[in-house]
Amino acid sequence: MTRARAEIDLAALRRNLGRVREVAQSAAVMAVVKADAYGHGMGPVARAARAAGAQWLGVALPSEALALRSMGDEGRILAWLWAPSDPALEGCVRAGVDLSVSSRWALAEVAEAARRSERAARIQVKIDTGLSRNGVTLSDLPSLLDDVVAAQGAGLVEVEAIWSHLADGDLPGSDTVPKQLQRYLEAVALAGSRGIHPRLRHLANSGATFAFPECRFDLVRVGIAMYGLTPSPQLGSAAELGLEPVMTLRARLSNVKAVGAGTSVSYGGTWTATAPTVLGLVPVGYADGVPRAAGGRVDVAIAGRRCPAVGRIAMDQFVVDLGPGGGQHGDDVFLFGPGRHGEATADEWAELIDTIGYEVVTRVGSRVPREYVGDSDTPQGDNGTDES
Ligand SMILES: *Cc1c(COP(=O)(O)O)cnc(C)c1O
Fold first, then answer.
1. CATH architecture label of 55-227
2. Structural domain boundaries of the chain?
3. What pLDDT sits at residue 2?
4. What's the CA-to-centroid distance between 127 and ligand 1, angstroms?
């Protein structure tokens, strides 16, 4: 085994999607695989998600959608974020990728790409119902709809969906969700009054899929729940939601040494041993996605025992206090995962360092190889789940 790896349990991912489908009931599922599948690896995750019944894949960027096509995915894909003159836009139209449209310039670019491709582009009109990011406001919607009607009449676009995104989908009882829902329905009605009746309506992310049944409509866009982390602690822990973390970040001790009381550790010497102890060196650092803010706050599991990270996290490495019992170079270190080896979850790390589980897993760097276990294509017993 290498110095470190991120193990991705595709069987857990399929179970999480099964759980999401059960909660989503009749709504179809879009598996959100942007940002390299939140750090889990886009190709294997996309294949597993399709196998588990995801009718849609969702990505932010047109280039991510084209990457899915070049991996052989032929299903429905939505891409929703780009800046003017994105070089991948026309390829998306040619490859039958749905493109989200929030403004007149974006519609004009998609229509132009459709004209050059001699094929109608599938668009999904995004409404800003209160998040104030992408999406067209209700006041700008009528003029965008004028353009949509014209482009549709010219055979350049087909409106597949009208959709929006929630600010507080993960906060049960939030009063912004009903307000956004109402604006969303107004937008759908306005489009209908112009003769635009899209096949799909969608509004819910993972949080809203669990917390706001009235937002599920025809399709739910699910990222974090599929990866087995909670959308927000207020909604409950992943375990309470019936989800299992998919990623285990593990490493091996690369140095172990006994030190005396008074020994300071790492840059700035922010931690000093108060008694004789044994220190272990974990050869991953913030370049690998271990947040620098984790120094002195998180712990790792070694042989089932929690050992605190002490001193500052460096770019490539950090130090843990093994205690007088010590350990051996080469020992397995579990940073975060589902807890099978006594380790904390990414959600627990997130709480300790003031972020969200999304960021903890998405940050795991490209220097850390991803290793896949539980792939349904891999014969049983050949999944690399050994303890080496
Ligand atoms: C990332 C994203 C999602 C997925 O959100 P989760 O909270 O991970 O389920 C859904 N919709 C949009 C527009 C997104 O950007």
1. Alpha-Beta Barrel (3.20)
2. 55-227, 247-373
3. 86
4. 15
- As for ligand 1, residues whose beta carbon falls within 6 Å of it are 32, 34, 80, 165, 205-207, 221-224, 231
Look at the block and give the residue holding tokens 């002195």. 296
Architecture of the domain defined by 247-373: Beta Barrel (2.40)
Contact assessment for residue 220 and residue 159, using Cβ atoms and an 8 Å cutoff:
no
The b/e string for 74-95 (b: 16+ C-beta within 10 A; e otherwise) is eebbbbbbbeeebebbbbbbbb
- Give the pLDDT mean for 277-299: 98
pLDDT band at 375 (very low <50, low <70, confident <90, very high): confident
Q: What mean pLDDT is reported for the chain?
A: 96
Helices 42-51 & 62-70 angle (0-180, nearest 10):
70
Phi/psi at 240 (5° precision)? -65, -30
Catalytic annotation, residues:
34, 267
**Residue 385: pLDDT over 50:** no
Our CA dihedral for 319, 324, 325, 331, rounded to 10 degrees, sits at 20
Pocket test for ligand 1, best of 212, 221, 246 (most atoms within 8 A of CB): 221
